[in-house]
Known about the structure:
Elements: H1 2-6, E1 7-10, H2 22-31, H3 37-50, H4 66-78, E2 84-88, H5 96-113, E3 116-120, H6 124-130, E4 136-138, E5 141-144
Parallel strand pairs: 1-2, 2-3
Antiparallel strand pairs: 4-5
Helix pairs in contact: 2-3, 2-4, 3-4, 4-5
Amino acid sequence: MYRRTTVGLVFQSYYLVPSLTAQQNVALALTFQGTFGRQRRSRAAEAIRRVGLGPRAGHRPGQLSGGEQQRVALARAIVHTPPLLLADEPTGNLDRATAAEVMSLVREIHRELGTTVVMVTHDEETASRIADRVVRLRDGRLIDS
């Protein structure tokens, strides 16, 4: 229960359900929390709008670009307004321009919702540019913070 209410997860691979629309993929996350009906649809639509995909809400993952799919995954992770967002290489499958857009969205979510973001990335340039704090690990050990 704790994970479902407190933590949002974003992965390098999007893990979207191919037969569902973008909005349905986001709404699915609320189902596991017991949110149904109009409230579930409304919150999913708002999360989709927040990541800039309102006009694409009815599209299935196969009809979306990689960046759009990652935005859907981000919307799914924040739809329940978690205080903590964990992101594992969220830009790993994206080109530099699209990665910058996604990182901008993550930063915006942090500022607007007060969400704490913990992100794993191998892209030190991006991490240094957007993070309040960068911690470096090597072989599971802290080498710099």
